[in-house]
Structure formats: C-alpha cells, structure tokens
C-alpha cells in the first residue's frame, strides 16, 4: 500500500516496471556510465559511482575547455560564492583553507580542479566534447549517445547503460524575444548614454 499526497491509502500497480533484482547491478557485467558535464554535480557523481559500482566504466563529456561548470564559465570581477565557503564543498573532500568566508570564483574553480586530481578523474574526462543526442534502445537496454568534438567538428557514437545529465539548469541560456513598443524605450535610453 502507498499513500497519496492527501494521506489516503491506495494500491499502486508497478507491474509495468522492470523487476527489482536481489543482486548488485554490476554482478555479471561491466556497467558503462556516461556523465554529461564536469561541474560540481558531474564530478561528485563520478566519484561516488566509481567508488560504489565495483565494475564501472565511466566517461565524462564536458563541452567547455576545462572542468568546473559555472565556476569555469563565470570569470567576471567579483564572482563569488553566495553561501559560506565551508558549506559549498564536498563533504568527503573538505577544504579548510578558504581565503574568505564567501570564496571567490577562481578559488572555487581551483578547489574543483584539486578534487578532480585527487580522485584521478582526468582520465575519464573529455573536454571540448558536447553530447548532442541520446536515444534509449529498449531492445538493447542501452543508450546510444552522439558526441561532437568541438575542436574538430567530428561526431562519434558512444554507448552506455546509464546517462547522467549533470549540466546544470543555467548551462543553456534562453534569451527572451522582445520586439516592438516594449523595446523602443530601452533602445532610446541606450542611445542616449
């Protein structure tokens, strides 16, 4: 039995789902995992999966030319953490030497680089590689992932049992389309400056 949001008991039919097996996922095979993104989420997930899945093959694709996600991309003057630095780090790899209570962006970026080096993750990371598509094959039980090398333009196909999407929700900006009368006052203001 399960409970609904209102507290009512209801029977949920899970017959459509794959059966839960009483054995580890990697008991009889290697498990291939592709992670999209090498920021905090991708790095932390990679560490935990590599440590806890005994027979895992891991690949991280990062579109940028360095790891770090938001801390690599945002290099403007004054960029800093908006919560206490000691709270903005991995619990399993703590930095006790933050320079300020709210660490500056470059310091956080360097922290992430040190974590990647400490856990020897660089061998799993392909920089300048963007995942441009992923298709699930029910028949094979695997993901087919299309990856573009941003330096050469070449596209390759990779395959995985699991795909972890760790690009963050701000990695693909959506600019509003503002035209006409709403935009006119701002255009005049900009020209006056």
UniProtKB/TrEMBL annotation:
Q: What molecular function terms (GO) are annotated for this protein? A: monooxygenase activity
What sections of the protein cross the membrane?
Answer: none
* Alphabetical keyword list: Monooxygenase, Oxidoreductase
Instruction: State the Gene3D superfamilies in the record.
Output: FAD/NAD(P)-binding domain
According to its UniProt record, which protein family does this protein belong to?
Belongs to the FAD-binding monooxygenase family.
Name under which the protein is recorded: FAD-binding monooxygenase aflW
Give the organism, scientific name.
Colletotrichum spaethianum
Q: Which domain of life is it from?
A: Eukaryota
| Stored InterPro entries | FAD-bind_Monooxygenase_sf, FAD/NAD-bd_sf
